[in-house]
Specification:
about 80 residues, alpha+beta, five-stranded antiparallel β-sheet
Length: about 80
């Protein structure tokens, strides 16, 4: 199991995840971040397409491995 951290960037602010979560793969961590982004976006204001928050999924060393933009979870095609 590898530990991943979910920092939240909003504008110029970064809210650091000091605990982290263990997953077997980065894909699993990414899927969880997508689910959490949807839940958090809906809990904040309901559906908000202008939500500028981004999960930065990082390694324990702080290397950004993937990003999940909250607004991308609601992109209409």
């Amino acid at each position: 199991m590898l530990k991943y951290y979910y920092h939240i960037r909003e504008g110029g602010n970064l809210d650091r995840d000091e605990t982290g979560v263990e997953f077997e793969t980065l894909d699993q961590a990414y899927e969880e971040a997508m689910r959490a982004a949807v839940e958090m976006a809906l809990a904040r204001d309901g559906l908000c397409l202008d939500d500028d928050r981004v999960f930065e999924i990082t390694s324990p060393e702080g290397v950004i491995l993937r990003e999940v933009a909250f607004r991308d979870m609601f992109r209409v095609k």
